[in-house]
Amino acid sequence: MDKVVPTVAELTQDLPRNWGKWGAADEVGALNYLTPAEVLRGMSAVRQGKTFTLQIPMGHPKGDPVWPGRNQAQRINVMDHGHYLCGKGPQFPGKLEYADDVMFMYLQGSTQYDALGHVWCDDQLYNGFDANTTIGGMTKASVLPLAERGVVGRGVLIDMARHRGKAVLDPGEHFSHEDLLAAAAQQGVTIQKHDVLVIRTGWIGSFYDRDRVEFYKNFVEPGLTYSPELVRWFADMEIPNLVTDTIANEVTIDPVSGVALPLHIALMRNLGVAFTEICQLDPLAQDCADDGQWSFLYVAAPLKVVGGSGAPVNPVVIK
Ligand code: UVW
Description:
Number of domains: 2
Shape: globular
Helix content: 25-40%
Bound molecules: acetylphosphate
Radius of gyration: 21 Å
């Protein structure tokens, strides 16, 4: 007999929620943990002045990794020197010439922040907002409040691929919060309360060397896997932001329940944890392995897209 898959609401119903914790109107969730004191704690992790940016290129010649069904970003020149060569470029006093381009893309089609209302179940978004508020553009828990607030705090990188002695985790390979703690211990770093949790699997970096068909075949990403204990650990640690180098920040299908993307509900919708996805973490991870410094100042702000369910971002790490 086929296994009966519970709804994600049933799976997560007895677990902690932060709804109402920061008021009935709150739209930024666990980012509320990042107080001025947390900004200063992040700044105290800056020791060398090295900087890293975590966004993948938009419109890479080898393509961009996107969730199956989403199209890749398309950048189109609408003005360049060619227009001037054929006498069609706008003329200005002083003979200045210019280039222009437009981009058509999914807001989740590059490194991005998900709005807290990006996913829902039982007709309710984060903080209990009605799912009808998503219709025609999000009027509650969109990406705009996250963008207006910005994200600044202490970040810690956990390199799960390195911990398992691999360049990249396998499709569907999963790990728990206990695995994160074991990897942290091996790295000689402690995950502290209110840390921005950055997890490397090697998955996004591998996209550029992989055959497309192989990358998307039976698409199951590696990543964190759901358990009640893991959700309680995130709640107890008051993690404000989960950042990974995968498209969806978690193993695509929970191997125990069979539910798709349960952490989107348990962490993002229920606890208000901000999700940053599709990061390039390989250069940062190599540097951390070289110098032994796995904590840093993390700074990011998605674009201020009114009503957006997400928005691109280029996070900056300063060590
Ligand atoms: C989905 O919306 C399926 O995933 P993501 O959060 O990666 O955009």
